[in-house]
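User: Hey, quick favor. My workstation is busy. Could you predict this chain's structure for me?
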Amino acid sequence: MKIHDWRTRSETGENRLWRAKKHGGHWEFMSRLQRTDEGWTNHEEMDIDELKTFREVLFNKYQRRRIPWEDVLKIDSMIEEAETSPSETD
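Assistant: No problem, here it is.
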């Protein structure tokens, strides 16, 4: 199982900790506010902006040869699906 962590700033100015786990080819995404949340919140669907941020994290790890290129391609396909799905429902 591979685990990737990164941080973003929330709307309130607090740090949001993100965690992505890859197990068996399936990605699980979790987050929590650094100071106020006790446990992790699971995210079934990710926001496009967060997926793009995660893609940057993965690409940086790929450049350091820490992950395979297939992981970056999988996130690229998830971003593509997220971008096309809202237009299909209109």
